[in-house]
Amino acid sequence: MTHPQSRRDFLRSLGVSAAAMPFVWNLPGLGFAAQQQRKRRLIVMFSPNGVVPDAFWPKDEGDKFTLPTCLEPLAPFQKQTLVLQGVCDKVRGDGDNHMRGMGCLLTGVELFPGNIQGGSDTPAGWSSGISMDQELKNFLQANPATRTRFGSLEFGALVPDRADTWTRMSYSGPNKPVAPIDDPYQMFNKLYGSAKNQEYVRSVLDEVQEDLKKISAAVGAEDRRLLEEHASYVRAMEKELAAEAGMKKEVGHAVPELEPGVREDNDQLPKISKMQIDLLVSGFAADFNRIATLQYTNSVGQPKMRWLGIDEGHHELSHEPDSNKGAVEKLTKINRWYCEQLAYLAKRLRETPEPGGQGSLLDNTLIVWTNELGKGNSHTLDNIPFVLVGGGLDFKMGRNLKYNKTPHNRLLLSLAHGFDHRIKKFGNPDFCGDGPLDKLT
Amino acid sequence: MSDRLLFAPLPLRLGRRIRQTSTSLLIIALAWMLTAGKAQAAETGVQIYTRLCAGCHGGKGEGVANEYAQPLMGDKSILELSALIDKTMPAGEPEKLGPAEANAVATYIHEAFYSPIAQARNKPPRVELARLTVRQYRNVLVDLVGSFRWNNNWNAERGLKAEYFNSRNPNKSKREIERVDPQVKFDFKDASPLKDKIAVEEFCVQWLGAVLAPETGEYEFVVRTENGARLYINTQWANPVVDAGVRSGDDREFRGSIFLIGGRAYPLRLEFFKSKKSNEKTASIELLWKQPKHGLETIPARYLTTAPFPELFICSTPFPPDDRSMGYERGAAISEAWEQATTDAALEAAFYITRKLNELAGTKDDDAKRKDKVRDFCVKFTERAFRRPINDEQRKLYVDKQLAEAKDLESGVVRVVLAVLKSPRFLFREVEGSPQDPYNVASRISFTLWDSMPDKQLMEAAGRDQLKTRQQVTQQAWRMVGDMRTHAKEREFLLQWLKVDQQAEISKDPKQYPGFDEQTVADLRTSLDLFLEDLVRSEASDYRRLLTDDTLYLNGRLGKFYNAPMPTDADFQPVKFEAQARSGVLSHPYILASLAYTGSSSPIHRGVFISRSVLGRSLRPPPEAVAPLAPDLHASLTTRERVLLQTEAEACQSCHSMINALGFSLENFDAVGRLRDKEKGKPVITNGVYVTRTGETIKFQSAEELAKYLVSSDETHTAFVEQLFHYFVKQPVRAHGLDASTRLKQSFAGAGFNIRNLLVEIVAEAAMPAGITPPPAPANKVAVAKLPVTSTGAK
Q1: How distant is the Cα of A126 from the closest Cα of chain B, in angstroms?
Q2: What whole-number distance in Å separates Cα of residue A369 and Cα of residue A352?
Q3: Is B368 exposed, middle or buried (0-12, 13-18, 19+ CB in 10 A)?
Q4: Which of B292, B348, B271, B289 is nearest to B315 (CA)?
Q5: Contact residues, chain B, for A233 at CB < 8 Å
Q6: Which residues of A fall within a CB distance of 8 Å from B340?
Q7: Residues A144, A96: contact at Cβ < 8 Å?
């Protein structure tokens, strides 16, 4: 009987024997620790619909700059923050700006023609190239020294349950969008499901054994053999599980406790955000992956941030003219809220020591917070927000840099070079002219 | 083609054989010296056997290690056996035994241990404890979870309910057409589906209903469109199996696979939309599938219904395959891999159930009685899984304790489901209660017909103790035998009987058989399916049609290839078009082509099929590794002549005298099953002789004559009855009494060879332990009364 490989793998990962794997993570490599290169990690965090420039961009260039309202939550991390202004998404072609803003953000290449129609531009399909997060995942997974259980994990928060150009920013190749997992429980199962399953199986095996004895006693001698064989396998399974449970204690990795029963609905976004960030950080601590994306809603996303006193949908608000002061204020609050999520992520990373290494996870991780548009009501792809936090790629942090309409493909190249992946072009080669961005290191 | 079946390369075995022969020669020589001089004329069979044969074959034919280790058992008649002994035994010195002595030995060993009857007498088979087979396990999970949902009847209208909208999304107020489409294959070109009512630039269509999976396996669904489409199968309605909502680049064909269990219908919805401004000048859509081991085809109306069906739980955990050493799947052995699979599958089921808990338990999140309803659900789930009511102690163990110890209700349900599905009461068949226990009877009925758990009516009958008499049992069986699940099992039986499930892909030499391509093979498979479906579902369900039906289902394409006078665009229909009659499946081109090489027919494969499947003869693997003679090395020989040359050795002839003659009868059909009367310029010869187990000689001129004999032969009837019994019951028929097979055969013949009737009789035999009601007058009762009928014999 044949089954799709992926499904088989999925079920294997639920399995009991295969479950030993998560428990052997991260044992400090004793003799090797010193020789080991430090781990480098990347997180791309996405929030939609552009920003309010005045409330978002710092005024002064260089290392002495004041954080404007939207970025204030980053105050504790200002020394590890790098703001890049003037980086533009130059990719044109089919699709409206929301679509290209999303589909070309990490791929740096045009969309295929297709049937997805938005705004007033030509319709389009999926991106025609791989995205940088997946490119780096492949690069790291190809090398045994940097290979991890998953390579990359794609987190989402309230991503609508439909696959189209507005809901996907990560691509494993042309026409191959990667769906983020926006259900924290599903993500938990992916990361820790096998451990949890072991607990379940362990909890019932005693009962099964007990009942098995009763049945065996009532069965004829010739047939008892089969039942006894069954019993011995059940006993073996019980022992194996007990041994693995013991091992888990030794390694002592705290599996995050998720608040039960959080539904996927608008008002739960703050909770979902926190749960996903906690899972992301614990996944890094366990070295399940070195690359992660965290996608809040989608391009044109419409969360209603009622917890901030905002009853309108985000995208709807983002279309309001600058003269609508109420809308501008709300949009500022919204982006500030996203920045708070970024700050929480940075805080959790800083609190977590680098296992078997130096410093904290934040010292070895670069977070890139970005957006599909520069500004919501103009739909411009110029001045795409790129706010970087953390010491993962040896960029010189604690600065506000201004570029002159520089294609974002060059920033994507910088990320690759930060991992020592020395490629010359990425996405549309016409936008890679002078290689990685200058002034970063 | 599975050459390995016939020409197993066994060099080691060959070497051992040579050694064995020389040792046995020595022993025989010694034996002869010791006994020389004594009078031999009056010796009985047993004496001769003891003196000349037992040294190598053992006192009771059990075999002797390092001599001739294989036990002496088989199904040759006494005459055949004595001829063989006369010619070949003792090994190397056959001249030692004259015909009379050989006959005495043959008669003795046949009665003492060689024949199947003697084997059965010496070691009476019994009904053994069995676990669920993999097929049963998957079926039971579908029906167990499904028993908490509604269900529908397949006998509704064929095709799909279609709604056409004058809008981009299905907007009820803009619905312009509502009708039934037999299949989805439309090319609207640059026009509207309904002029003036539906705009040509932008519209959508929604097809709704269910699709039937005729057998268990992986189904590939394909949507072809230059527009947008989404196909949902067995989900209501999330996670489309084919998502072509985004068209991107030049993709026009979208695929998705899903594992489905046979004999069940699955909800289907297909959304199709053409959108404005998307540069979509034209519109077209086609819904196709690839059934397991079939070609790609537009899903035909006969597998579609407009009736709604509920989602089913399909367990997709991979399992290790079941033991098939006896010729049928048995739950006779367990392994670590099986334990692991049952654990994984139990987890899979537990998570599915907790995800759907409110629906299955009939409650809601804010239901004040949710806890009680969930507990009720758990109790019912346990009872249905164990196929019997549970007592207080079991309820505490499997339900109350699990719910109490878990930190929340959902975790509790996971534990209940896990404990129940890992329990031997679920995993093993009838481990509790006496053979006569009504719940055990219910299980035997449903597992026999459906390979699944009893349904509600059966459980209720058991609860009222109304499964006591043969009449009550057959009444239930008649009710259940028309169910799609029985049809699916019958179909699966016939396919394995025809060895179709073991065939690799059929391909033919394009030079010799131009036009015989993948499409032809796919069409032929459909043709066979249609014939078998017709047979299985027809009122008469007459077994004899399998071997004698003289029509072929052909469509226009096949008609063209097989020279049937019909329009090239004709749909499948039964056709009779040749001067020489076809003989049911024996001469169905799919079977003929699969039992053939790429460039020539294979009388040996065809003969083995008739010997084994049709006549039920047991054949040993060939004694030596033989490569088939290449046709081009013997360019002047016909296939018949070449096969005779290849199998002329004495060692081959013990089996090939039978195999060849049977296979030659089909020589007037070439490697693609087309009629021929000449090969290499010589007339095709199809006559031959078959010697029955009882020593009767049957002569035939053609396959048609052979088929006429076969369909009236006791051997074929017995073979069919026993194979059907084994496939359906999964226990040896002789465990149900040495005369069970005879009894079934008689009622089969008495009821016009109605297969459905035979199935009901088989259910009665399997479900009714001997002793409850006397079976209808068996001729001579052998001592079988004490045979345990279920594993729970100790009582």
Answers
A1: 6
A2: 20
A3: exposed
A4: B348
A5: 334-336, 339
A6: 15-17
A7: no
Q: Residues near B146 by Cβ (< 8 Å), separated by ≥ 6?
A: B310, B312, B313
Give pLDDT tens digits for B193-249. Answer: 999 999 999 999 999 999 999 999 999 999 999 999 999 999 888 889 999 888 888
What's the CATH class of domain A41-183+265-431? alpha beta
Q: Please give the single-letter amino acid code of residue A214.
A: K
Region A359-367 average pLDDT? 96
Contact with chain A for residue B392, Cβ under 8 A: no
**Amino acid, res. A381:** L
- CA triplet B584, B589, B593: central angle to 5 degrees? 130
Spatial CB neighbours of A419, under 8 Å, sequence gap ≥ 6:
A40, A42, A136, A139, A140, A393
The answer to whether A52 and A228 are in contact (CB under 8 A) is no
Radius of gyration over alpha carbons of chain B, in Å? 30
Residue that has been written with the tokens 């078998």 in this structure: B532
Q: Residue for token digits 């899972």?
A: A279
Residue pLDDT, tens place only, A395-412: 999 999 999 999 999 999
Cα distances (angstroms) measured from residue A2 to each of B170, B337, B405: 36, 16, 38
Residue B36 pLDDT > 50, yes or no? Answer: no
Q: Tell me how close the Cα of A410 comes to any Cα of chain B, in angstroms.
A: 26
Amino acid (1-letter code) at residue B180:
V
- Cβ of A126 within 8 Å of Cβ of B129? The answer is no
Over the stretch A302-311, which tens digit does the pLDDT of each residue have?
A: 999 999 999 9
Mutation for testing the A interface, residue in B248, B254, B316 having most A CBs under 10 Å: B248
Smallest Cα distance from A288 to chain B, Å: 23
- Beta strands at B185-189 and A176-177: parallel, antiparallel or unpaired: unpaired
Contact A201 B343 (CB under 8 A): yes
CB B243 within 8 A of CB B200: no
Return residues 316-335 of B near A (CB < 8 Å): 316-319, 321, 332-335
Distance CA B397, CA B405 (A): 11
- Identify the three-state secondary structure at position B272: strand
Would you call A204 and B340 a contact, using CB atoms and an 8 Å cutoff? no
Question: What are the residues whose beta carbons fall under 8 Å from the beta carbon of B580, sequence distance 6 or more?
Answer: B668, B675, B702, B704
Contact B574, B551 (CB under 8 A): yes
pTM for this structure? Answer: 0.76
Select from B735, B769, B734 the least CA-distant residue to B435.
Answer: B769
Measure CB to CB from residue B418 to each of A122, A200, A218 and give the nearest one: A200
- Give this complex's ipTM: 0.73
The verdict on a CB contact (< 8 Å) between A162 and B245 is yes
Distance CA B100, CA B105 (A): 9
* Percent over 90 (pLDDT), chain A: 60
User: The dihedral of CA B774, B777, B781, B784: what is its sign?
Assistant: negative
Residues 6+ apart with CB under 8 A from A294: A43, A44, A45, A46, A155, A156, A157, A276, A277, A280, A345
Residue showing tokens 């019980």 = A238
DSSP states of B699-747 as a string? EESSHHHHHHHHHH-HHHHHHHHHHHHHHHH-S-GGGG-TTHHHHHHHH
Q: What domains, with CATH codes, occur in chain B?
A: 3-122 (1.10.760.10), 134-149+319-478 (no CATH), 160-305 (2.60.120.1560), 507-712 (no CATH)
Q: What does DSSP assign to residue A155?
A: E
